[in-house]
Every structure is written in structure tokens, then in C-alpha cells.
Amino acid sequence: MSTLMSALSELGLILGFEFMRNAFAAATIVAIVAGAVGYFLVLRGETFAGHALAHVGFPGATGAALIGLSPFTGLTIFTILAGLGIGLLGERAHRDVAIGMVLTLSLGLGLLFLHFYTAYASQATSLLFGNVLAIDRGTLAALAGLSAVSLVALGAIARPLLFASLQPELAEAKGLRLPLVSALFMTIAAIATAATMQIVGVLLVFALMVAPAASAMRLTRHIGTGIALAIGLALAIAWSSLILAFFTDWPTSFWITALGTLVFVASAGWKRMVSRRRSAPVSAAA
Asked: Are the C-beta atoms of residues 185 and 8 closer than 8 Å to each other?
């Protein structure tokens, strides 16, 4: 009982600061959309494309700062355009090389923009590694809007997207337009990536979009349960990271990546243990 009271007291202390309340609200919004969209990214084997979206957003943000616009606006526009373009490139085997080239070119452009305007070096650091503790109410409202659009759109195409992801040949034979579904999904992934970058930055998006989803897929084969579990793990990672960052004064992004890796490794260990238990009677009988 005393432990519970102590934990509630510590939580009250954390939420007594406005920047921590904003951080928890932003982390909650982003974790929900990252968990849901990340599950489909992993299911479709498009994690590399999702990683590229984050890098493409970098020159968009630095370019926008260069001409006096909001970096968040430039980042969002560039990421959405990149998502639409990647989706229209077709099959993954044919587009990975093009994505890799666009990815490196994007980082080069971002570096070039920073070379001309070094005054934005501090903003670049926030873009690369995220800074959830600096989110204000305006950014929070933008994150809520982007996340709502992303989740509503994902729900609208969920059935054809699932069909196209699990049985693409059959879906195409049934008349489903795979390039259109792919383009729509990558646009949704781009919006989710733009939101997630506000928390973990360009370089660490994988930690919140892929680690919870990949872990959930190791723990359950049921799609509905898997999506719910991916969202739950993303929320647990984001909230735990904020609490640890508050008490240790270490970067929140570090804790998100560390906990994401820990969850992924633990899920792999759990799956291996379950597989051994299931195969044990067969081996004994043999």
C-alpha cells in the first residue's frame, strides 16, 4: 500500500510540470498511431520504406527553416510526398534501390541546408534525435490532428490493405488495385512518421514504429490482438521512457530506443521458449 502511495506521489510530482503534461499527451498520441501503422509496416515487410520516410523529412524541415517556415510544416509536406512516391514505385524488390538513393540524397540535402544556415544547428539536433520535452500546445494540437487523420484513413482501408498484404496475388486477381492501396498506405505511414519524429527524431523513428509492432507479431498471430498489443507496448515504452528521463536526466529518445530493444529481445526469447515447449512432447515421443 505504501509503495502504491509513493508511486502516485511521484506521478503527481511529474505531472505537476506543464512540459511533462504536454510530453505525456504527445507521447500517448504518437504511440497509438505508431503502434497501429507500424504493425502494417512490419506485416507488409516495408520497414525500410518507413525508415526512409523519416530521412526524407529531414531536408524538408531544414529547407523550411531556411526560408523562414515552420520545420514541422516542411517535414510533414516532404514526408507525405515521399510516402506517396514510394507507394507508387511498385513492388518492393524494384523500389529498394531507388528508396536507398532518395534516402541518401535527402540526408545530403539536409546537410547542405544546414551548411548555409548554421544558426539552425540546434533545431537540426532536435530533428535528428527528437525532443519531446519541448513540445508546446500548438505542436500538440498538430500532432492530434495528424494522428486522427492517419488512424481514420487506416481504418477506412484496413480490409483491402490486409487482403493485399496477406494474399497480394489473389487480391489482384479479384480486381483490387494494389498500387493504389500501396500508395494510400504509404501516405498514411508518412503522416504517422511525421508525427513520430517529434518524439524520437529522424534517426530513431524505428524504435517506436517498428520495435513494438515486431514484438507484438512475435507474441501473437491474431491480427486484431497484435495491433492492440503493438499499441499497448508503444504506450508502455513511451510512458516508461518519460518517467525514466525525468528521474535520470538522460535523453528520452535514448530510453525509448533502449526499452524498444529490450521489449524486442524479450519477445524473441519468449517465442523461442514457447516453441521449445511445444516441440518437447514430439521430440520425447520420437
From this structure: no
Query: Rounded distance, CA 119 to CA 115, Å?
Result: 9
- Which among 225, 227, 224 is positioned nearest to 212, based on CA atoms? 227
Give the amino acid at 268. A
pLDDT tens for 219-277 read 998 999 999 999 999 999 999 999 998 889 888 888 888 999 999 999 989 888 888 88
Please report where in the chains the cell 499497448 appears, as a residue. 232
SS3 80: helix
**47 or 27, higher pLDDT:** 27
Residue 161 scores a pLDDT above 70 = yes
Sign of CA dihedral 40, 41, 43, 46: positive
Q: What is the CA radius of gyration of the chain?
A: 20
Model confidence at 89, pLDDT cuts 50, 70, 90, reads: low
- Of 223, 105, 217, which is closest to residue 158 (Cα–Cα)? 223
Q: Is 176 left (phi over 0), alpha (psi -120 to 50) or beta?
A: beta
Cα dist from 112 to 106, 122, 179, 211, whole Å? 10, 15, 33, 31
Q: Which cell numbers in the block locate residue 217?
A: 507479431
Of 178, 174, 79, 68, the closest CA to residue 123 belongs to: 68
Dihedral angle sign, alpha carbons of residues 102, 256, 36, 132 = negative
By C-alpha distance, which of 34, 5, 58, 10 is closest to 235? 34
CA nearest neighbour of 257 among 221, 203, 213, 220: 203
Task: Please check whether residue 34 is in contact with residue 192, taking contact to mean a CB–CB distance below 8 angstroms.
Answer: yes
Q: Could you tell me if residue 45 is left (phi over 0), alpha (psi between -120 and 50 degrees) or otherwise beta?
A: left
